[in-house]
Design a protein that fits this description.
The chain is mostly helical. The longest helix has 23 residues, at 2-24. Helix 4 packs antiparallel against helix 7 and helix 8 (172-190) runs antiparallel to helix 9. The protein has ten helices and two strands.
């Protein structure tokens, strides 16, 4: 019985990862209903592990399950982005205050190095490297936290913003502004001003109001006044 349980769990995880890859590559379109029969046939599986994987994706905000109607891929709307930014600003700010006693010069040095690599990647039009180092920059302080539930929430929200589907290009004016904000955050942390750093990450770096003009261009390709809320 236990062996069957673990086999089923493993299959569920495989289906979950498969669906996330499909979302990442844009093969499952936002706003579309999934063809569950086609997915089951393509993977050669029953509906049970597929259903379980979809429950997890719904809990993480990637799909919505409508009883007797089907499963719909959620659209990343402007309002959803606004909500995610507010949550991330609050959570990352809380972490900066929480880890103050653990933070060391080597952590500041690591953040500075990651940010310099981001600037170099930007000059070389290397989006993948820029994206990876951006995550590394934030993880330099996030991973000092022992709050695994908070870290999981942050990871899922960032996946929602960046991964499904994964953008392959820059909005360079935004990336330049972002690395400049990173420089300011590093300055605050180097001085030991963790409350100031928390305020800055919440009120500037993850502020929807501050970043809105970039968000509208990056996600919707439209000027600020033309996107419906």
């Amino acid at each position: 019985m236990e062996e069957g349980f673990f086999n089923l769990k493993s299959l569920r995880e495989q289906v979950y990862e498969y669906l996330k890859i499909q979302l990442n590559e844009g093969k499952l379109e936002h706003g579309a209903f999934l063809n569950l029969n086609a997915i089951s046939a393509e993977m050669g599986i029953s509906k049970t592990p597929l259903r379980d994987a979809l429950f997890q994706l719904e809990a993480e905000g990637f799909v919505t399950i409508y009883p007797r109607r089907g499963v719909k891929v959620n659209t990343l709307t402007l309002e959803k982005i606004r909500n995610i930014y507010q949550i991330l600003g609050g959570l990352e700010g809380a972490v900066l205050v929480e880890v103050a006693a653990k933070f060391r010069k080597k952590d500041v040095d690591a953040m500075r190095q990651f940010n310099e690599e981001m600037k170099n990647a930007l000059q070389q039009n290397d989006f993948e490297r820029f994206y990876s180092r951006n995550l590394d920059f934030h993880n330099a302080y996030l991973e000092l936290s022992e709050n695994t539930d908070l870290l999981r929430t942050v990871r899922i929200l960032k996946e929602r913003l960046y991964e499904f589907p994964r953008s392959k290009g820059f909005l360079k004016e935004w990336e330049v502004a972002s690395t400049g904000e990173h420089d300011r955050l590093i300055e605050l942390l180097a001085k030991g001003d963790f409350n100031g750093a928390a305020d800055y990450i919440r009120d500037v770096h993850w502020s929807f109001a501050v970043q809105e003009r970039f968000i509208r261009k990056y996600y919707f390709g439209l000027a600020a006044q033309t996107v419906e809320r």
